[in-house]
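Notes to self after the call with IL:
- keep both proteins in one doc
- input above output, always
- annotate only the second one for now

Protein 1:
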Amino acid sequence: MTQALSTEEQSKDRYFQQLAKVAEEMVDEHGKDFAAGALVLAARWVAENRLGQPENRPN
């Protein structure tokens, strides 16, 4: 018996599909090392609550 996905599960599934598409595009254009590194860096930013914050770079 197959159970229908909840609204939240459907939303999460759409995000996974979007991530997969972006990852495939990055691999196609720049290789799997770049794609993996970029995704790990993005995960780190999420974990550190740094998304949307400007970087403090020296002039």
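Protein 2 (the one to annotate):
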Amino acid sequence: MVELDALHLALLGIAGAAAAAINAVAGGGGLLVFPALLAAGVPALHANVTGSVAAIPGLFSATWTERAGLRGQRARLPWALGAAPLAGVAGAWLLLRLGAQAFESVVPWLLLAATAVFWAGPRLKAALRARSSRADDAAPGESLPALAAVSVAAALYSGYFGAGLSVMLMAAFSFVLPDTLPRQNALRMALLLSAKAGAVAYLIWDGTHVVWPAAMAVAAGGLIGGALGDRVAGRIDPKWLRAAALATGAAASAYFFLDFG
């Protein structure tokens, strides 16, 4: 049983708020929450599970905000979302089935990859923006079976860990789903929510790895940070927020390589 005092919970709330604000401005907030849970004394596997549970309110809010972008995409939804909850469950089952030792052995590489993807994000987004500006609703090259395959793979990874997935999905969508960025982003958020909801349902049902006080603290902070995200965007240069997320992700990767690598 993980015991957290008021100070730890307050710091986790601040981490959740900072992560949500960073997501609203620059992305990459997930690179803050997992290390914050570790710093509070939550074991790695429990921190991963707890962070997944805490992410649900923020994902729901973001998906609701982007819902207008789903208009006209009804034909795509079964391919993108149909298997996502089950694949999320499979990822969560795999996480718990393989256990803490296996997770701790791969998480340095997963964190390093997520940090690298986040670092490359601005360049990748610029390339995707240029690509999507040449696309329209009837753009050739769309492959619904490929969209389904990407969605299942993404949901499986989301259920297991999920860091860096947003940028990876936008890159994949640019090849299998030629369309405008707002429409791609709306579908991406719906997919992330569906996958994580399936995973979290299984993790809650299992009931042995969620540190509920920590999850509630991070989620509450996330709701506050998300609401303040627009104000933060006008006061803080996004490059400093990105730098904070990158530094945290790199430090967490180094920590795991030194301790478990």
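Annotation: The mean pLDDT is 81. The CA atoms of residues 67 and 186 lie 6 Å apart.
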